[in-house]
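call fold(seq) -> tokens
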Amino acid sequence: MNTKIKRRTRDAEEVLNELLGGPLTFGEMLHSLRLGEEISQVEYAEKLGISRSHLCDIEKGRTLVSPQRAVEYAKKLKNSKVLFVQTALQDQVNQVRVPYIVELKKFGKAA
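ret:
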């Protein structure tokens, strides 16, 4: 009798999607990073070079971020440019309700 239990490894993204009811948005990502650093919106907004109200709008999903801004924010926060751009683009795709997932691949020289 085979008593081995087949276990499936789940990655962090899959678990987060399940908990959140869908993919992580750019605003949710920024919010999570800010909370992880245990700093206020005012302090985080200063790091990003934006107003607190603008940060609040991003975190709440009322304002989308362009890929260019996503790169700027990633640099300022010393985080993954690919992750930031991919998440910002995914928000834009989701807004127009097309059933696609954004995946980035490096192309040629870095801009």
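The chain has six helices and no strands.
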